[in-house]
Amino acid sequence: MSFYDATVPAFLQILNSLSGLLNKAETHCAAKNIQPEVLLSARLYPDMLPLSKQIQLASDFAAKGCARVTHSEVPSTPDTEKTFAELQQRLAKTIAYVNGFKPAQFDGADNRDVKFPAGPDRTMTLKGQQFISHFALPNFYFHAATAHGILRHNGVEIGKRDFLGVN
Questions:
Q1: pLDDT in tens, 37-69
Q2: Which of 15, 44, 100, 106 is the most core-located residue (most Cβ within 10 A)?
Q3: Which phi and psi angles does 143 have, rounded to 5°?
Q4: Long-range contacts of residues 112-118, Cβ cutoff 8 Å, at least 24 apart
Q5: Mean of all residue pLDDT scores within the chain
Q6: Are 51 and 42 in contact (CB under 8 A)?
Q7: Beta-strand (E) ranges in the chain?
C-alpha cells in the first residue's frame, strides 16, 4: 500500500461522513425545534471543545497533515464558522483540497522530516510516517469521533455506520 493510499482515502472517508453527520444534526434540530447554536456549542464535558471546534480541528488535521507531509503550502483556516452551512462549506473546501493531492506528492514522504507546531511556543519534527501515524491521523480521528459523540449524546440518531460513512 502506498503512503498516499494509507492517508488520503482515510481522511476523505471521515470528512465525508462528518458532512453527513452535520446534515443529520441539522435535520434533528429542525425536527425537535432546537436552535442550531445549542447543538453547535454542545460539549461532552465542560472542559472539552464544542462541536463546531471539533469539526474545524478534524478539517485542519486532514488538510494541514497532507500539506505538511508533502511539504506543500499549509492552508490558512481561520475558525470563523458559526452555522451548519458554514461548517459544511469548510468540510467541502477541505475535501476538495485533500482530493487535490496526487499520489506522487507522497512518494518518499514517509521518510521526510515534517516540522509542525506543538503548542503556541514550540515546534516538533518527526519523519513523515511517524507524523501521519502518531500525530495527524490520531488527532483527526479523535476530533471526528468526539464530534460524533457530541451529536449522539444530544439525541441525534446516528451510529457507527454514520461515522464510517457507509449509511
A1: 999 999 999 999 999 999 999 999 999 999 999
A2: 15
A3: -70, -35
A4: 112/69, 112/71, 114/68, 114/69, 115/68, 116/64, 116/68
A5: 97
A6: yes
A7: 113-117, 123-127
Q: What is the pLDDT of residue 43?
A: 98
What are 83-100's pLDDT values in tens digits? 999 999 999 999 999 999
By the 10 Å C-beta count (0-12 exposed, 13-18 middle, 19+ buried), 38 is classed as exposed
Number of residues that this document lists for the chain: 167
CA gap 78, 17 in Å, rounded: 22
- Sorted by sequence, the CB contacts under 8 Å of residue 46 that are 6+ apart come out as none
Specify the amino acid at residue 29: C
- Whole-model pTM: value is 0.96
CA distances from 108 to 61, 103, 151 (A): 20, 10, 39
Cell of 14: 471521515
DSSP 8-state class, residue 109: G
